[in-house]
């Protein structure tokens, strides 16, 4: 083959390759545009599409889950509104009964008027890793970095004050936004049952950007700062009270798990906590009783007539001995439900009490001029024996939160709230 002929063949190959590359590039660009357009359309342009498409499980075609959500339309009232997306990658690996959901976002305003803030469910074993409803104990981490919000095992929730603004003819005080990776409930898209570090940080960026974009739409005066990198995962292992440094540090300082303070033996000897945060509207500390301590208490009190109700409802095999101390601040405090199923029963500002149906002690205070509700939920059958011993526990918790958050006008439950009736 002479030189001229070789050159002609070479040029044709180069041109053909270039044409193919241009065609492939065009298809790739179209696919990327189509995927971003789907996110923008479903989520009203409030959610940063590029960040969403960088999350785990985002591969393949993205489609809105119209049967679950009509999407976000920021000009339409009322809020909240949400968008739910499916991905081809998640749907391709779904199991029977799963919907292939990939990502969801929600925007809302305060006062909410549309939902309640539920306390921990006393009927669930929050520390049981085999519980199909609780993948990890639900003790949420604050985002940090002066961002009001928290991280769960699947998403990020933020809040932005928005005073002096109206939406739908009603005055609002704040906006909320959340971003959740629904695919994180699947082991192939998560790390040890939680979000990966990259997804956790990216969801924080998405939630903050969504809140700020909604603030632009509503002409709110403020904006959230950028969230920090390296947001910690939720703690999943309990520690001894004297090792606690976050939301359960108060229990260690009070030394209530030690004798003589715990002469009865009923008080928790392990805690599960998160970091403390000045900007969260909800915080939680989970306390539990280990197997050795449970056995000792059961043997000691099973035949005691004063603990008849406990003996009738308990056994040596019970594992659900825990109590959850929670606090709700601001607008969230006005909608605290002590009912694990509905919102029929709610804590009332300026009062303290006990809900025997939900096994919830509750107190109230005023923090920074806004209402706060503090609760102590006690699991069954543990409540039947422990209730009469929990007054110093709840008092120590409420006093610690009040000091840490600058709360006043604290009202605790009456003394008879801690008495289990036989």
Structure in a nutshell:
By secondary structure, this protein is of the alpha+beta class. The protein is 27% helix and 24% strand. It folds into 2 domains: 38-218, no CATH class; 241-418, no CATH class.
Report on this model:
By secondary structure, the protein is of the alpha+beta class. It folds into two domains: 38-218, no CATH class; 241-418, no CATH class. Helices cover 27% and strands 24% of the residues. It has nine helices and 16 strands. The protein has helices at residues 3-42, 49-52, 88-92, 197-218, 249-254, 291-301, 308-313, 382-386, 391-405, and strands spanning 62-64, 81-87, 101-110, 117-118, 141-144, 147-151, 155-167, 170-180, 270-272, 282-288, 322-329, 336-337, 353-355, 360-367, 370-378, 407-411. Strands 1-2-3-8-7-6-5 form a seven-stranded antiparallel β-sheet. Strands 9, 10, 11, 13, 14, 15 and 16 form a seven-stranded antiparallel β-sheet that branches. It has a two-stranded parallel ribbon with strand order 4-12. A hairpin with a 3-residue loop joins β6 and β7 (155-167). The termini are far apart. Mean pLDDT is 85; it is low at 6-24.
Features:
globular; membrane; DUF3558 domain-containing protein; seven-stranded antiparallel sheet; transmembrane helix; 422 residues; transmembrane; 16 strands; alpha+beta
